[in-house]
Amino acid sequence: MHAYAIQDSNGMVKLDAMENPHRLPLELQAKLGQRLGTLALNRYPDNRVNVLRQALARYTGMPAGFDLMLGNGSDELIGLLALACDVPPGVGNDFRPASVLAPVPGFVMYAMSAALQGLAFHGVALTEDFELDEAAMLAAIGEHQPAITYLAYPNNPTANLWDDAVMERIINAAGEQGGLVVIDEAYQPFSSKSYLDDRLARHSHVLLLRTLSKFGLAGVRLGYLMGPSALIAEIDKVRPPYNVSVLNCECALFALEHKDIFAAQALDLRQQRAIVLKALAILPGVRAYPSEANMILVRVPDAVKTFAGMKFRKVLVKNVSAMHPLLANCLRLTVGTSDENQQMLGALRECL
């Protein structure tokens, strides 16, 4: 293993981490600063976290009979899910360790959290056009009986949504085996669909995972997990005390009070995504895949050379070509501001 590495972005156009590039307006920066300055930093977090939970429930339109828990980013919640589902071999007459299943390529933390907790991870390859391989997924669920099946919606790094009917059959199959399904909607602000419609409330074994990072608060580290109250109550037992700081909590509440500003930022990024996709479509040697997120996956003739050339030109993107064979010669481009996107496109043209 190696520790999670962050690329040095000093002096770069930073388009490698799917961040919202927009800062708070100056007036709101001042208001937030004053508000944070009044917090009792000498005290442990209090009931204010429950105020945030209620605010998120209202913001999302959480179904009746559901509850949510907070995490220090969705990464912590993924780790807590693995911890909660880590049933040792021999329990219930099953001598296999608990397992986690997800389509690959996908978010690396699903496999990492399983490995760190001692669960087996089973990755099921997507098709060549990055769709769910339904037959392979159903076969893997039947064989491994996973405790958790992850479906990122949209997926990272491919940025696409899944076919609704295929998704439902996979969800039902996982439930029939007694497993949980986690729908990870990290990129929901940029997607045309959400599973938080009438579908989520139909299931007693499906959880919805979201983060405020792509909403515009990547530096705040605040994720939330939503599901039937009985399930959330069990998973909440393994949550560390005071895992969300008073600063994280108050920043999230402040953002929800000004959600219209963040919604406008997300709209701008969706519009910029369309502009970038149109520009990429006419670049020779480049294949850009459809996107429902604030990132675009592109295949180029030589990902290593192109990544290095863009970095030399002070544009930092993500080289994902070594993540999985299906991603050979692929780069992941974060959608930025208009100026950032033009610099990125210019650097890409020169490298080609």
Please write out the topology.
Layout: E1 13-14, H1 26-37, H2 48-60, E2 66-71, H3 73-84, E3 99-104, H4 108-117, E4 120-125, H5 134-144, E5 148-152, H6 164-176, E6 180-184, E7 206-211, H7 213-217, E8 223-228, H8 229-235, H9 246-257, H10 259-281, E9 287-288, E10 295-299, H11 303-312, E11 315-316, E12 318-319, E13 330-334, H12 338-351
Parallel strand pairs: 1-11, 3-4, 3-5, 5-6, 6-7
Antiparallel strand pairs: 2-8, 7-8, 9-10, 10-13, 12-13
Helix pairs in contact: 2-9, 3-4, 5-6, 10-12, 11-12
- Write down the CATH topology of the largest domain: Aspartate Aminotransferase, domain 2
Give the overall shape. Answer: globular
User: What is the N-to-C order of secondary-structure elements (H for helix, E for strand)?
Assistant: EHHEHEHEHEHEEHEHHHEEHEEEH
Question: Treating each run of at least 4 consecutive H or I residues as one helix, how many helices?
Answer: 12
Structural class: alpha/beta
